Write a sequence for this structure.
């Protein structure tokens, strides 16, 4: 579902005018698209933009583009100050709802891991995943249930329950989340067992990198 996002029309503006605009909490931007005769200069509210960047930076947006009307758009580039990291400018691109887009979706862990209850440490290896799908099918998040995950076990990309019509080009053997053993002194047998498991995991990962997938 597209997120409503407000934009105002603006003139191109000089560097000094754009600086004053930012000081008032307004960020300049541009909307590009094949259905637009020319790129459209816009401005957006800084607080609303920052909230969007924190929560849904890759979301499909429903924007009332000045002089054009409501259009589906996505953020494509955010320019920041190299020192303060404050946003200086933002680009949006008009989206064709009938063409697949490549974007990133946040990964959200759910459940109380058995391994964590036993003292293990949950470590997320991926915080978002790149997907390919129609704009209307972009999920808000990809949920990963870690409830049954034991110490030493992983959730791989291939284990993810992606929604219908959503695919990823990441290797199925890539680790999404793992439960690390608690930091303690291991006995000789435990150390040997962990070494074997690590070697087996490395072998599986190597096989995954060598495998070619043509169904995505």
């Amino acid at each position: 579902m597209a997120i409503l996002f407000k934009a105002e029309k603006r003139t191109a503006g000089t560097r000094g005018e754009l600086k004053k605009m930012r000081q008032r909490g307004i960020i300049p931007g541009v909307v590009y698209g094949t259905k637009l005769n020319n790129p459209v200069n816009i401005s957006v509210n800084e607080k609303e933009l920052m909230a969007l960047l924190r929560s849904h930076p890759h979301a499909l947006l429903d924007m009332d583009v000045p002089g054009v009307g409501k259009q589906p758009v996505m953020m494509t580039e955010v320019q920041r100050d190299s020192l303060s990291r404050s946003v200086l400018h933002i680009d949006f691109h008009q989206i064709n709802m009938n063409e697949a887009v490549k974007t990133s979706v946040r990964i959200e862990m759910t459940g109380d891991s058995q391994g964590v209850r036993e003292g293990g440490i949950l470590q997320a290896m991926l915080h978002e995943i790149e997907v390919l799908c129609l704009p209307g099918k972009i999920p808000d998040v990809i949920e990963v249930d870690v409830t049954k995950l034991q110490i030493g076990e992983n959730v791989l990309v291939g284990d993810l329950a992606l929604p219908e019509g959503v695919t990823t080009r990441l290797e199925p053997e890539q680790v999404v989340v793992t439960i690390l053993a608690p930091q303690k002194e291991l006995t000789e047998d435990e150390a040997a067992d962990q070494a074997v498991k690590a070697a087996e995991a490395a072998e599986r990962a190597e096989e995954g990198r060598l495998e070619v997938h043509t169904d995505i």
Q: What stands out?
A: The chain has a mean pLDDT of 84. The helical segments are 15-23, 46-55, 114-117, 188-210.
